[in-house]
Amino acid sequence: MLSLTLDNLGEAAELEMGALPADATLGEHRTATEVLPGLLDRLDERELTATFFVEGLNAEIYPKLLREIAARGHEVAYHAWRHEQWHELSAAEQAENLERGVAAFERIGIEIAGLRPPGGRLGESGAAVLREAGLRYCSPAGAGAGIDDGVALLPFQWRHLDASCVLPPMAAAREQMTGSPDPVEPATFVASLTTEIGRLAEDGGYVAIVLHPFMLDWLGTEQLEALLDRIAAASTGGLRVARCRDVAVELLADPARFASGTVLDETSWAD
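Predicted structure:
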């Protein structure tokens, strides 16, 4: 099974990192006003659905866009309130963060089923805080779908994430892609994902591809469309391509289908 996922939206992460002043004008970020609308059209053209992990702050800044994402059949999921490094939060802080985010999305008519923790790690509270918040799944860094404390784990691998191609701490992911720690070109990244999609169709298992709206200029239109075409072809060819929440429902209903379980990855782009 394959999930196409996208992380981040708008100004939230930039505010958290201090890249924008606290009094910056919000609501005009290019990822929301230009990038996402074009991407949604490309997904529609190929009848593909994706999971968008967005920060809770966006429910206040871009409610209309989030409703449109959901109305087009995609999943809106949680990526912390303002892209806080999840593993650095205490259990109480995680619970408060989740409560705030879930409530913000509920106010705009969107139910949150899952979380992707910024930084990729769950932290000391593990999946328990997610279960208590009513979430059904989590997508941390790791490999192999599984279940922890009643919560489905749908991990991503760093070599399947676009930003790993350029971030200095992710040299190990680049070596897995190409055998070299050097930065990876967009065409090489797409070729690596194409190989992985073929392997997945042949051998089974679960893979999440991770793209970022702010990285789509780096990826380029030609490579983005080539990747989406490859996913669409795999879907019509028999590979199950599904939103994360749908995979979680199937996993929780039939755990034996993913009997190998999950191995979490403690590395992070933020290290």
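Summary: Residues 186-203 form the longest helix (18 residues).
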